[in-house]
Amino acid sequence: MMKLVGLSGSLRRGSFNTALLRAAGELLPAGVELSVHTIWGIPLYDADVEAAEGIPLAVAGLKEAIAAADGLLLATPEYNNSLPGAFKNAIDWLSRPQADIKRVFGGKPVAILGATPGGFGTILSQDAWLPVLRYLGTNPWFAGRLLVSHAGEVFDTSGAITDDKVREPLKRFVHGFVEFVGASTSRKPAGLGQ
Ligand SMILES: Cc1cc2nc3c(=O)[nH]c(=O)nc-3n(C[C@H](O)[C@H](O)[C@H](O)COP(=O)(O)O)c2cc1C
Predict the structure, then answer these.
(1) What confidence tier does 185 reach under pLDDT thresholds 50, 70, 90?
(2) What's the pTM value of the predicted model, to 2 decimals?
(3) 78 C-alpha to ligand 1 centroid (Å)
(4) Using a 6 Å CB cutoff, which residues line ligand 1?
(5) Which one, of 167, 161, 192, lies nearest residue 179 by Cα?
(6) Best of 10, 38, 79 to mutate for ligand 1, by most ligand atoms within 8 A of CB?
(7) Is-contact 66 102, C-beta < 8 A?
């Protein structure tokens, strides 16, 4: 079984980015599971708290989930033409202590996707993540791109995708990433190449 973790960079209950990850979970090939997480409950990074108390529980659980995953999907909102501070804060906590970066992120296949009510599909936010992914030593997947614009017209009130023009590209994106993860790790989902 291939295990993927999806992390949504939004705190919003009705988040389009969380909905996008949930929808991705419905479109996976056989032999792949996706557990969807959000950044909810992660405090602001504070080095004094880290020194006194260590890594907060919410961070520690997520860290282990990412470390154990074969691949990571980051669904990013775009704020002010860049990545959201709250999402970066979560990744900053997840990168602590520095000695753990290699175990948690090193060589990890990562794909970025995003949704926005705006017209440019989070393209600037997705690009803003690249230096972070490089610094963490991840193995980013560049062959696919998923930019969901006008998200208010793409999801219904339950968060389900109502637009085939998004569902199909999402399916292609997820399947492409799964193939990449399979080629990058020894674990292959059932039904994909040997
Ligand atoms: C402070 C702020 C800045 C924003 N800047 C952008 C932006 O630069 N580009 C964009 O497409 N949407 C922008 N938005 C709109 C977000 O894309 C929108 O709030 C979206 O729903 C957030 O993702 P979520 O639904 O997953 O919470 C901004 C929203 C906020 C609150």
Answers:
(1) confident
(2) 0.95
(3) 5
(4) 10, 12, 15-17, 77-81, 116-118, 120
(5) 192
(6) 79
(7) no
